[in-house]
Amino acid sequence: MDDRVREIIMKPGDTVGEALRRMDESGGRIVFVTDDDGTLRGVATDGDTRRWIIAGRGLDEPLSGAMNPRPHVLEQGFRRESAERLMTDGRFECLPVVDGGGRVVDAVWWHDLIEGRPGIRRRPLGLPVVVMAGGRGTRLAPYTNVLPKPLVPIGDTPIAQLIMERFAEWGCTEFLLMLNHKANLIRAYFAELDVPYRVEFVVEAQPLGTAGGLSLLSGRVTDTFFLTNCDVLVEADYESVLRAHRESGNEITLVASMKQFTVPYGVCEVGPGGRLTGITEKPSFDHLVSTGLYVIEPQVLADIPRDTHYDMTDLIGGFLERGRRLGVYPVSEGAWLDMGALDPLRDMLDRLGAGQHG
User: Do 106 and 135 share a domain, yes or no?
Assistant: First the structure.
């Protein structure tokens, strides 16, 4: 068994949150759950953990509850043709290989099996993408003293262009950039760009917040659309995001990332009369936080007041109060790349291999 397989093997008592972090570390979207002797107990994919979270279960609960206990497997000595057929029909990216006793001895990844031949085809989504690109980006000063935030480079490519290229890989070819601050500079850059997608601009006469500018799209956008901030990249299966949105009947789906927060102090537990009952050194907590990527139905645009400063928190809060359909699509912490401030920007550069920045 090689190291690549060993690093995705976990135990039933490990937590769901630990499995998500292991998926990030391994660069894959799957872990194998085995007993101490290597016997396969189940498989957990990012889809399994996502369904677990959507069902309201905790990230600190045992992985044995979230895993698939009856996964597809390949038996030692499998025929290549059979493996190709099984992985194609099931759209599996990775399958465990087990011996006669059910112990994991190897794994097969789709990209290794196919060896350069075309893999599982993506269906073009064809949805419009709205990019909120009008902010001043004050947290990225001094870079944004010169450049508007959408044009801050990640390596050789501005962040807004990287975002659009990622969506274009999923068959989205219509982009609307919501502009305000330094709008002419952003328009000039994209006017010179030779790209296989269409970029249109909607200019806010005054700053309208993180959602107010969407009122300008009423009647212009008539289909389900993606909405993204211009300072985030989300490495997700956008087809799966859209499918989950539609199957749940949501009007707005928030893509949310698991985020681990560590309190850098000893946390005191206090009982009656001020008595210390316990202390936990530097505890960690897992939460789901909004990434700034959404899937939205066009009728939502009618709920946004015109010519008014209005944030996404206002829109979402109003929907919650009125019982409108909102949902969450969870992704792992490593799937979310943020450049909204200097430290996350440097982290994004490191993770994308874009070299040094400043």
Answer: no
Whether residues 221 and 107 fall in one domain: no
> Per-residue confidence at 121, pLDDT binned at 50, 70, 90?
low
Contact 108, 74 (CB under 8 A): yes
- What tokens were used for 124? 């073009």
Of 79, 77, 80, 5, which is closest to residue 43 (Cα–Cα)? Answer: 5
Q: HSE-up of 294 (CA within 13 Å, CB side)?
A: 26
**Domain finish residue from 114, 143, 173:** 114
- Over residues 271-308, the pLDDT tens digits come to 999 999 999 999 887 788 999 999 999 999 999 999 89
Q: Are residues 139 and 238 in the same domain?
A: yes
Centre a 10 Å sphere on the Cβ of residue 216 and count the other Cβ atoms it contains.
Answer: 20
| Pairing status of strand 30-34 against strand 9-10 | parallel
229-251 pLDDT, tens per residue? 998 889 888 998 999 999 999 99
Eight-class DSSP state of 234: E
Contact 15, 61 (CB under 8 A): yes
Is there a domain that residue 253 lies in?
A: yes
What is the sign, positive or negative, of the torsion defined by CA atoms of 137, 141, 147, 153?
negative
Domain boundary among the residues 88, 114, 140 is at: 114
- Do residues 12 and 60 share a domain? yes
The answer to whether residue 120 scores a pLDDT higher than 60 is no
Domain housing 43:
3-114
The model's pTM is: 0.79
Q: Are 96 and 4 in contact (CB under 8 A)?
A: no
In contact, 21 and 332? CB cutoff 8 Å? yes
Amino acid letter, 321:
E
Position 179 in a domain: yes
Helix (H, G, I), strand (E, B) or coil at 320: helix
Residue 49 lies in a domain: yes
Lookup: tokens for 295: 């899937």
